[in-house]
Amino acid sequence: MPYNGVKAPFDRDYDLFFPLFSGIAEDDNLQSMLVGAVMRKIKSRTWKKQRYFKLEDDCMTIWYKSKKAGNAHSTFSVSDVEAIREGHQSEVLLSIADEFPAERCFTMVFRGRRANLDLVAESAEEAESWIRGMRKLIENLENMGEREKLDQWIWDWFKKADKNNDGRMNFKEVQNLLKMMNVDMNEQHAHRLFTMADKSQSGTLEDDEFVLFYKMLTQREDVLRVFQRYSADGQKLSLSDLDHFLREEQLVGDNVQQYAKQLIELYEPSDRAKLLNAMTFDGFLMYLGSAEGSIFSPQRRGVYQDMSQPLCHYFISSSHNTYLMEDQLRGQSSVEGYIRALKRGCRCVEVDCWDGANGEPIVYHGHTFTSKILFKDVVSAVGKYAFKVSDYPVILSIENHCSVEQQRVMAQHLNHILGDKLLKSTLDGKAPIRLPSPEDLKGKILLKAKKIGGLEESFSGTEDSLTGEPSDEDENSRNFDKSKQRLSKELSDCVVYCKSVRFNSFKHARIHSKVYEVASFTEYKARKHLREAGTEFVLHNSRQLTRVYPSGFRTDSSNFGPQEMWNAGCQIVALNFQTAGEGMDLNDGLFSQNGRCGYVLKPSFMREVEKTFDPEMPQKLDGYNPVMLNIQVISGQQLPKVNIKEDSIVDPLVRVEIHGVPTDQAKQETRYIDNNGFNPVWYDTLRFTIHTPDLAMVRFVVEDYDKTSKNDFVGQYTLPLTCMQQGYRHIYLLSKDGTSIPPSSLFVHIRITGLK
């Protein structure tokens, strides 16, 4: 049926009100969750309150309320839950282990930085039902395609707008829905769409009528324009039409016809079109909304890099003050910090060790009011979660403030808890002339700490000193006695390829340093070296590991920009993973490639000793190859509402930022669009000259324009320039926390051209 003067290109029947989990009637666990259960919500040893929990009929929402709260209740979406841990697997549940058995306890782990939910069921059977049921729902959600996610999203909105829960919507409810969905539409136009969708002429929309209304609302004129440009008959893309589009726009070079057939097979919903080897508009839309049509190249998603080079040839995803959940003065210390960092692909975590009571070393931010946790609990968490998302080595960066006696206890815990995972000697039994590779060290945990003597002495049996040089981390610890600290031989023996040393100068390091020695710098010292001797810094990092960490003045756990440290080839750029923002967006963006394994191979000019690269003067590089990046920002789809006021609608603008060597640092913005967060259209082109493409990161930021105050953040997406697909692409936006916010997206056209 025609609307907006365009024939509706959808020819597919939708059943919107699908259950999230088909076969729900046969699933006893889900049936039990639908009935609900009284469980205890646990926040501490003393805070244990009963709540009534149940799964709502949409199989997407968990509803809960207090017995005393009258009608007040809370909900959260199953999509907010990342995992279910059974038993006493959180500090809170461990603290009440003597009171409630493990088989009645479980933890819901939320995405992003939201606190976990610790629960105790009335019986082991009830706990089992919830554990299995939730896991089933999470698994089902993870297997959803983009189209199903969109259907689910529509269904969620329908429920929110259907205030009287009668399964239908009158025009007033539809008007409220439009405001909730960020749509500013005049009443006349909205009523026209409503009447066209109301096939039954009942004055309300139900089921399929609402789907039709949504389709009319979300008609993609921008995509239709591209489709019709390449379609010979305006109705479909023949195989040769699609082939032409893929060559001209998407710059697909090899086996194009084979690839076109593959796309039809994967994304075309019409069997009739498939028989004709053709793609309808609906199939075209599904392809552009898929992983194949996204801005991030699918070829770069898995591990695609050479993993057999020395450790110092990789950027390594690294966390600072990993034990902290908040700020550095009064924040909570928790083993959860380690679990979250490791599950995000982090490969270097920090452990700040101090003498504790009863001979047990503790971990906390010394001389502050942050809470304390046991060293052995940290080691257990690392041992358990180190290789859940990546097989490549984990580095435990130890800041050691312990007495010799408690250092011995640390060594015992490391050996006893980690066993064979802990690397205790060089791989070939000899002093190394180069560092081993991530591939060589798969499944191993390495200790980075001070060591008595060097590896050479340990092989010749000549080590005898029980003191260690203070390292740069010590220099930055308050009240640290700068005289040499006594070290325990047992802990020293656990240090193999990562001996913490104090940095003297690049010249001294070139002549005297060993490949297994690691220097640490505050962000300020690293910047100073970068300014004064950029080329030497890059060269130093082609041979040895360097760690850079935030200044101690960042008591709010804020982050510095990691890019300038990567520009110098620094591998272990330690960030506060607990703090959302630009620093972590760049970190997540860089490490989203290569299987999210936590290791990214540095460009060849940063690995080869004979190459000289100065980040301040990239044009001097042998093999200098600048490019022009053209980004046409076409449109946005279903941007989230940022202002909770009911009448407020987003005025979106898109800022594109280039993070790279100093001459590449740049940002440009589109216009802002008045009152349309639902389907804003820009067609604005932004152009950037990029001198060092191999180091450039591209960050797309959507903001809600405000002429009187700071713009509000709406969403962002960051990726390396080298992982970008060209042509027409969708960008699925992430929240401030780095979690996905489907179906919010941008539609862009990308073109990268050489300048030489």
UniProtKB/TrEMBL annotation:
PROSITE patterns: C2, EF_HAND_1, EF_HAND_2, PH_DOMAIN, PIPLC_X_DOMAIN, PIPLC_Y_DOMAIN. Residues 458-484 are annotated as: Disordered. Its cofactor is Ca(2+). Residues 31-139 form the PH domain. Pfam families: C2, EF-hand_like, PH, PI-PLC-X, PI-PLC-Y. GO terms for biological process: intracellular signal transduction; lipid catabolic process. Residues 149-184, 185-220 form the EF-hand domain. It comes from the Eukaryota. This is Phosphoinositide phospholipase C. It comes from Scophthalmus maximus.
